[in-house]
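Order emerges. One example.
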Amino acid sequence: MTYAVEAIGLTKYYGSFLAVDHIGFQVKKGEIFGFLGPNGAGKTTTIRMLTGVSTPTDGTASIMDYDIVKQSVEAKALMGIVPDVSNVYDELSAWDNLVFTGNLYGVPKRRLEDKAEALLKRFDLYDRRSEKVRGFSRGMKRKVCIAMALVNDSEILFLDEPTSGLDVESVREIRQMVRALNEEGLTVFLTTHNLEEANQMCDRIAIMNRGKIAAIDTPERLRQIMHNVQSVEVSFKEAPMNLPEELQQMGAVSSVEKHGDKYRIFTNEPPLVLKEVWDYAEKHGLVPISINTLGPSLEDVFVKLTGREMEEELIRGGRATAQNMSRGEMR
């Protein structure tokens, strides 16, 4: 079987430091494959090897059966890459950015012009094709980046944090665009810190931690492996200050977390906790606004497998992105 991406025993050392530890996985043709992990897990190092930027210390990586080291020209011709930091040239127009990229890939002139026109029309940029990208919004620049990555008729698209820093409308547009491209057969390799984005868009997700693949599966199956992380979420019209401590004293409660005006009560026995919450509310004259039972979230899975909160990763990732990109460091 030909896979869009296949890694076998992929390994990378930086001196004596083992950044990627003999990992193996396959990405099927036509799927959206999510790649998650804490900063320092080895995600960027892995992608650099998959895209031919960095040579593996050991193991192999292939794109559509083309070895990325031994057949790099053929492999790279099949891929488009959208980095998390914009790679558009601000002094060039949207049209010239696409033409420049197409020339790098050796796309014939007539075909390139047709492709650039089609992509700019598809991304609602054709009417502004002659304007310098410098004046574009962040969302428009991201569209130009994606169009540049597709100008060579890519069969697999590597997307690194495609919606990071964008407004809500732009995020929605980019996600719809990626889904539409995928429905037409494009394979998407998506790196993201946004767990909800991964949950909504990905057919399968790989979670990487400390240089190894901690898990690979569909979002739903990953949640199912966390059957012991169930919870009851409750919100009261008026809640006493000591409510978290009071809830913690209930039977079968493992922990309590406050999220805004809601309290999430973790337990292995939701029915028992539901009854105790109702009894507590009646006893103290509290008026529940909402009460729900929740299964484990993808974030719960992430924390369980990596031992690190995603919010912390977002903060660290924001600080480190520029440094990592300029120094070529792994994360």
User: Anything to note?
Assistant: The first strand starts at residue 5 and ends at 14. The radius of gyration is 23 Å.
